[in-house]
Amino acid sequence: MDFTKNTDGYYRISAEAAHEMMVSESGYIILDVREQWEYNEAHIPDAVLLPVTQIIEKAVETLPDKDQKIFVYCRSGNRSLNASADLAALGYTNVWEFGGIIDWPYDTITENE
Fold first, then answer.
1. 83 is in which domain, residue-wise?
2. pTM of full prediction above 0.90
3. What is the 3-state secondary structure of the chain?
4. Domain for residue 4, yes or no?
5. What are the tens digits of pLDDT across the range 53-96?
6. Is residue 39 part of a domain?
7. How many independent structural domains does the chain possess?
8. Residue 5 included in any domain
9. Domain at 91, CATH number
10. Is residue 108 part of a domain?
11. Which strand ranges, in their side-by-side order, compose the sheet holding 70-74?
């Protein structure tokens, strides 16, 4: 697959392309940029929660390797676009935005509260 970064410095791909990459690669992070209660309701297995409102303040702490592949999603795709642009602006070089969990046809898990 050949992908090109957009003008905001990150890649936009489909959920299917993201899943294909996740299955065939390792060493990446799946970043959920929704709120805690949304994450608890359903999230992609092994996803790390970092709400979009905390990206600027906590990205370096949560995501120390700025060259690591980061797959970003939210509920419908709006917050993940903002988060991906913020990450790219912070110097992250390998950001892959794939939209919302509502379009994710693969496994999700629920947190017991």
1. 11-103
2. yes
3. CCCCCCCCCCEECCHHHHHHHHHHCCCCEEEECCCHHHHHHCECCCCEECCHHHHHHHHHHHCCCCCCCEEEEECCCHHHHHHHHHHHHCCCCCEEEEEEHHHCCCCCECCCC
4. no
5. 999 999 999 999 999 999 999 999 999 999 999 999 999 999 99
6. yes
7. 1
8. no
9. 3.40.250.10
10. no
11. 11-12, 95-100, 70-74, 29-32, 48-49
